[in-house]
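Entry type: protein chain
Record version: 2
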Amino acid sequence: MTGESIETAEHVLPGHPDKLCDAAVDAIVERVRRRDPGGQCGLEAACILDTFHVTGRIATRREVLADLDVAEIVRETYRRAGYGIDPAGRAWGPLPEKLQISTGLVQGEFEPGERELRHLSDDQSISVGYANDLEETNHLPPAVWVARRLGRALHLLRNEKGAGEIGPDGKVLARVSRSGSNWRLLSLSISLNHHEKTDWIRMRRLVDEAVERAGIRFRTPDIMLNGAGMFVCGGPNGDNGLSGKKLVADAYGAGVPIGGGAWSGKDLRKVDRLGGLLARWLAKRAVFRGLGREVLVTLTYVPGGDRPATVDARADGRPIDEERFSAALGDPDLSNAAVWQIFRSCEIPLDDLARWGHQQPGVPWETVP
């Protein structure tokens, strides 16, 4: 990257309707994979007001299905996001215990021989991964890093100090000026759910503390709080939610192509998820091997394939020959089976990745040998 450019990225809090759906379906996937790492999940969810609907397929062992309480997983997702009665006695709805949860699920054991074919792609996918040389932002675009860090700080402070005042829903929009490895935060737009009598001065102080806690080491930028005014109707009471809608925020922000498929709701063998995480792994390895300051990797999967059909890489905007790219990375085994064996060791729950970003330190695809 040469010259100065402007990057903008958003992050939404766990109480946002779309993130409720992402976290709920990933919590179901997580529950299945802990009991059956090779189990299959392809799930989507939608919510509005006090209704929540889950659709898709789950294939796993009979005993895993018998213990899978989808409704309770959804209710717990709402509780973890902050819905219910807070420590100050204020109710933030929809209340988890009053949710009307319905499903349209195809559930059962694998068909004979089906499990043995899971190393083959069951769909097509275009998967994109990105990395840069900015260690301080975990090799992510700075605006993405800022939005996620601040979103997490706001959520934690809401739990610690916001009882009775601040609701579960919220958004962060960060605007950054960047020139190569140098960047600076220009402005922040923050939207926080609250009630009619919330103390706005207290809410603003919490925002300022969150900026400081997030470790954003720049002078305080221009901060807009609830630019549209009152935000008293939040969460599913104010908007519908759908899993997969925040795939730009889940990936690398608006400045990087997103490929196609969403990640949440899919097990780690599904090529939308496996391919997207593999592309990030390869891009990060390429940066670490000195191939460029910014690397973009695009993988193409076709139905029935046992590995990416094509691997395209660009370093600092210039294409890299596939053979040279593979050799520079040590000719890694990109077969679906080999990649899954590495990624299945992920210890962070998938629903936490859905809430706070899929590129968190410590997950296998972020660990560069």
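Comment: The chain has a mean pLDDT of 96.
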